[in-house]
Amino acid sequence: MDASILGAAGEAFSLLLDPFRLMMLGAGVLMGLFLGLVPGIGGLAGMALLLPFTFTMDPYTAFAMLLGMAAVVGTSDTIPAVMFGVPGTAGAQATIMDGNPMAKRGEAGRALSAAFTASLIGGLVGALILALTIPILRPLMLHIGSPELLAFSVLGITMVAVLSGSAPMRGIVAAGLGVMLSMIGADPQTGTLRWTMGTFYLWDGLPIVPMVLGLFALPELADLAIRRRSIAGDSNIDTRSGMWTGFKDVIANKWLTVRCGALGAGLGAIPGMGSAVVDWIAYGHALQSVKGAGKTFGKGDVRGVIAPESANNSITAGALVPTIAFGVPGSAAMAILLSVFLIHGLVPGPEMLNDNLSVTYTMVWSIAIANILGAGICFLFSGQLAKIAILRYTLILPAVLTFVYIGAFQASRNWGDLYALLAFGVLGWTMKQLRWPRPPLILGFVLGALIERYLFISVTRYGLDWLARPMVMILLFAGFLVLAGPVLRHLRDHGWFHGIARKIGMPRFRARDLFYVLVFGLIAYMMSIAAGWSWGARVGPLTVGWVTLTVCALSFANQTLTRGFSETQSKDGELPAELHMDTTTDYSDLPLGVVLQRALAFIGYLFGFMASMAVIGLIPTVPLFIAVFMWFEGRENWKLILGQALVLTVAVYVVFDRLLGIPWPRTLLGQWFPHLSFLPSV
Amino acid sequence: MQQKILKGATLAAVFGLGWSAAPAQADEAVAEFYSGKSIEMIIGYSAGGGYDQYARLVARHLPKHLPGNPDIIPRNMPGASSRLAAEYVYNVAPQDGTVLATADQSLSVAQAMGDASLTLDASQFGYVGSPVMQNNVLITWHTSGIETVEDAKANPAPIGATGGSTSSQYPTLMNELIGTQFDIITGYPGGNDINFAMEAGEVDGRGSVNWASLVPLGWYEEGLINVLVQIGLQREPDLPDVPLLMELAESDEDERLLRLISSPTTVGRPVFTTPNVPPERLEALRAAFDAMVEDPEFLEAAANEGLAIQPVSGAELQQIVDDIIATPPAIAARLGELIGVAD
Fold first, then answer.
1. In a domain, A3, yes or no
2. Residue A516: CB partners within 8 Å, gap ≥ 6?
3. The complex's ipTM?
4. pTM score over 0.95
5. pLDDT tens by residue, A334-347
6. How many domains does chain A have?
């Protein structure tokens, strides 16, 4: 690294020390922490929100504020993930796996503290990697074409094998379903509208926010409503001591933290590979590389919190790489950041690495400082936050559910978002109950789209020659290794093919097998529609469809044919060690009738919320819903009810109506009494 | 005879008076309507893009020139390349002049081609104006060896594109009608990705890019790109020697077809309101827009954001859209066949 670069880095640091810039950076950090906390809105909404304020600033200040915001979303999104099992952003899904069980055990303080420390280190690692690679960014990246991006995506999707636990075939089916769902919308190859069912809503594909919230948040909230207890139950709560333990956990696992930070930065640089999958890949990496992870992960192992949290904070730095070097946005939020470049007359590309090097380095410093500030603020409050785990569910549920609804709705500002949220909620809850792994669905959804895109480009551009590129070969081989390990282990555990053959007996069917039939039917139906499209539009869906159908049939056969064997075995008390890749809920202390009754009531509240939104609008629904829920479920006192209703309604109004400018759908009330339209969202 | 003239003069005087009195009254009515109200600006795209930037600029500066000075609140309603927003404005939004919108410049062409997904009639919108009109261009990288349309006829060249967008439509039409040999590589998610693929040598060129968005990169002055053809109704002042796409047509029929695909660039970043807005309010909106684009404060703000201003008035927009929709069905249908149309 030569002197001019060090000089630029030093100059950038002193530029940032200007009090106004630091203040704006701090404002960005506060905003980012807030957005991370609220489920469903994250860095992307934050960019859109803050962008207009930066028009009048100089570029250093503008970048400090925007990157300060984006950098810490991944710090605070841990809080709802750990406390409620509700991901604050898509990047906190994997944190739920171990963070939420820890909170239920009374270890929320430890989980939060480990997460913040890991976020801090991950964020700094990302900034450092960016700082060190800036001089070589462009030549490095010019060697990365569509075939290499394809190989990276393939490597990512091999993690499905790791993230499926003991159910690899069900994992592949879930991933296949995810890939099929990712192909909904206008395809970038031919422009064909795939499976849009005649609605504009699906033209741009299913948005990921309602999907993530439906798959992961709603099932957890349903459990909370069914169990009717505080999150931590009757466990003791650690606060001070837990925080210190969590900090020491990260120090004890420093290399895991650093590795995952580097992983996050590297993957974040790939356009389209956002935090929704990077956290899972880091989690999968930890699962493979940490000793004994197979036994403890998913049950509240702090290392399962450290890995994704470290990775999702370094993504911002990674995503900046293609943005700065070539003007290719590394993520959707970076696409908005690009317009800041243009507004300030900066051109992404060589200039950013020569003449404007100091601007580039202020970005690096902004990310580093923001991570320190963000983690520090979260630390200050984590002792208090951990106590949320002992609050009654009637205080927590209405607030979190309200934000889940609005967070999902702001994804594309359409009723479709809420239908998608509910549909994925049902799917997620069913998968959780039937022990189908949910992570592969998300992996397939995000990576499937990338794989189809880059495979199509690679083949039309290079024929089969792309396979011979050295980096492609290395990456595909690495993918093979990731895949081979779990597959071989699985076969070995079942006594190779001979052992498996021994277990086959007469098929036995259970009601739960119906889920196979549903998945099979859905995929077959989608394929029957796809058969009518032009070659470029149908080749991807049909290939994935056939593979998924085959594996679905195999898995079904495996389940029904070996059921006789495994049921006798479990009767004899020989339960094989199972790695279930998901959080589990145990209702065994509740009678089935009560569970069903409470589940129905919960669904009733979900539909009630939407019905009320259609009639009187979303914002008036907020206080109504909170009051109804708190009164009928918990007979809370009215002071508390009115207080919470008022505070939340004002918060929702300010954030979503005034700041984010969400266009509300028309309501019946507004149509009947047009004079009431002065009320927000009516 | 003289009487007739006199009569005419009287009539003219009466009308003249009427003419001068009516606007004042209308202005008052409009001011009364708008004062204390707020107007929504529905943006058919997500924040940060070109349509969004221009719409927000207009939202900030139009109120000053509008009787009653209402606030204009921008609201992003992205989806289906802005069709979601356009259909909302056409079918759902209140038609009293309290809703403005911006959406895809190509909506009217899609309508002319018989796009089954559209229920709207783009000629029914009340066009307020566009702050800018800019041609699209088809470019190749300097190392590609393809410098002119003639080169592209003689040699095949991989061109980066996104399916269903102008970047695949222009080279497809050129292959069909002009005899170029572009090898169109579709699948790129956006223009920036194609730029990168071009720099990295994966493709030789990009099927379509807005000229204004290319200027700040400085690639043209540095000789890094060749501009083969520009798509619009008149040549860009910066590009006097680059042919327009429609000039390359080999028959009158082809010329009509290429004119149709070239018209939307003139529509620019259109700002419009719902159908059936009371005429005096539409007139007030148009007049405010025309005054705004002359306002030094507005021009300075645009310059600060790096946004070029080349205004098109509401009346002009209405005319262009009407012309597009009046294209003989046979020509529009043939265009639809060549480039594909949503059904």
1. no
2. A552, A555, A556, A559
3. 0.86
4. no
5. 888 888 887 787 88
6. 3
